[in-house]
């Protein structure tokens, strides 16, 4: 699938707080590929976290 920020390709609103949750089956691999990515220094943050469920 494709994930974009709100209003893409235009700028998003100031103070936007965006969260995306990607779910997968146990054993699956998730790959993130960024094709157009910009951060505004001192304001924007990209945080990627992952958890492994218990079996």
UniProtKB/TrEMBL annotation:
It comes from Cirrhinus mrigala (Mrigala). This is CUB domain-containing protein. InterPro entries: CUB_dom, Sperma_CUB_dom_sf. Keywords: Disulfide bond, Repeat. Residues 1-55 form the CUB domain. The keyword Disulfide bond applies. SUPFAM superfamilies: Spermadhesin, CUB domain.
